[in-house]
Amino acid sequence: MVRFENVGLRYGMGPEVLRDVTFGIPPHSFQFLTGPSGAGKTTLLRLMFLSLRPTRGLINVFGRDVAALGPDDVAALRQRIGIVFQDFRLLDHLTTYENVALPLRVQEREEASYRAEVTELLGWVGLGERMHVLPPVLSGGEKQRAAIARALISRPEILLADEPTGNVDPRLARRLLRLFVELHKTGTSVLIATHDIALMDQFDARRLVINQGRLTVYD
Amino acid sequence: MTEVHQISAPDSAAQNGLWARIRALLPGGRTGEAGVGRHSRTPHAIVPSATVTGGALVAVVAIMTFLAGITIGSVAAVRSVASEWTSDIARETTIQVKPGGGLDVEAALAKAVNVAKATSGVAEARALDAKETARLLEPWLGTGLDVSSLPVPRLVAVTLAPDAGPETAETLRAALAEQVPSASFDDHRQWTQRLSTTARVVVAIGLAVLGLVAAATVLCVVFATRAAVDAARPIVEVLHFVGARDGFIAAEFQHHFLAVGLKGGALGGGIAIAVFFLASTLPHWIGTGTPADTLVGVMTLDLRGYGGILGASVLVALVTAVTSRITVYRTLRGIS
């Protein structure tokens, strides 16, 4: 689904933050992406999410070479990828419900066609009673769950999550991990970027370890 | 964490494998039905309508539209006054009959009047009688003057029809030369030319000022809109990341900023129109005479002037919308 071949990235004239990165995300797979802070986890996620282009190497997403994608192609591919940002990126002027429904709304779908689905998902992530409040009123954990729900609502083929348990207590972290594992069992490929060793120890999965710009895969 | 809620899902959704499995995973508890089926409320606009930047932009657009409107109105009013002014003077002409050489002045005057009346394009021709001529000379020669005892030229006032062209003056001049050799025709050409040159200069200066105001308006609106879109960059990014097409994002912003532009344009243009309307009608209401009666004529705005202000308001709104669209595309190029 995603394939990196000898990918290198540098910002401007600075040093390479990623060097010769080669790996793939197969369908129906589950993996953790880990490494020390500043090692390049978020950069790697951004490359997979098509919000950065590599300075060298080849990235292939859903069979398409990202170097040859036009703006509308990028939008179409993004609709097949769900992402949970570390800083949530919820829109403060939209309610929780509207934030979660946003990926469907930007596809210009009628609200009636997804209302039940969004309401249901919000209920399942425990935000059923918080759907009409604005994000500034939500707690960190609630924002996290809203961000996860937004990533899931369009039923992505790949889910990328950047430190999804960074703002929650260990109990909720375990529950969220189980949610991701369950998603994986239904066929979604999942990649979780985290430096939480305890979390990774709870589920035996492939690990992509990034250190000083180089990636090592432990299957 | 608050307890994860279990809700009674709609049948169609309950049959969905993914959600069903997630639901099975989560512990039961209080129902999360609070919001189910309560989304009949109007959804918030993706681009927030009430932001500080939005308010400031409305004010910038309104002020610049007002200034542009006042300039357009002033230029239109000056232009119409100047053209009335030159045409009034050009229409008042005179025939001068010089005495001497045993000429029967009264007969020559009568003939000149007849010649003038027979010329097409002449609306009216009237000889000034002795009394009127004496009154004209009064400032210089005093009262009780007997015009017949002095060799002063006598005048025929000729008013040209509004549609009379330069050929009327030529025809009349030729006819007089042939039939009344002692008469000469003065169409105030020199004065008219000076006046129309002055009027043209005034209008040209007005148009130059209008051009500058228009440029300043467009630049102000462009920069203010750019600033407003830049302030909304996080929204552009999130929309971009959740898979919105560039065209969709640009359309959302354009729609919002067109509304902002129309609001500001209507406010500024409306006030400018109100100012001109009041200036032309208020003196009537308070009984101080003709509206804005200036040295050069009556300063009122015709329909074209009002139309110009309206057009400027719409143009400013369009500039706002198009700028927002261009800025969004530029922002998107910067994100990816």
TrEMBL record, chain A:
Location in the cell reads: Cell inner membrane; Cell membrane
Per the record, membrane topology reads: Peripheral membrane protein
Q: Name one GO cellular component term.
A: plasma membrane
Q: Name one GO biological process term.
A: cell division
What's the main place this protein lives? membrane
Report which superkingdom the organism of origin falls in: Bacteria
Stretches assigned to the ABC transporter domain = 2-219
Task performed by this protein: Part of the ABC transporter FtsEX involved in cellular division. Important for assembly or stability of the septal ring.
UniProt protein name: Cell division ATP-binding protein FtsE
Organism equals Ancylobacter defluvii
As recorded in Swiss-Prot or TrEMBL, the protein's gene is named: ftsE
UniProtKB/TrEMBL annotation, chain B:
Q: Name one GO cellular component term.
A: cell division site
Q: Which InterPro entries match?
A: FtsX
Has the keyword Transmembrane been applied to this entry?
yes
UniProt keyword annotation of Cell division present: yes
Q: Which GO terms describe its biological process?
A: cell division
Cite the entry's keywords alphabetically.
Cell cycle, Cell division, Membrane, Transmembrane, Transmembrane helix
Give the transmembrane region(s). Answer: 56-78, 201-225, 265-286, 306-328
Kindly provide the name given to this protein in its UniProt entry: Cell division protein FtsX
Species per Swiss-Prot/TrEMBL record: Ancylobacter defluvii
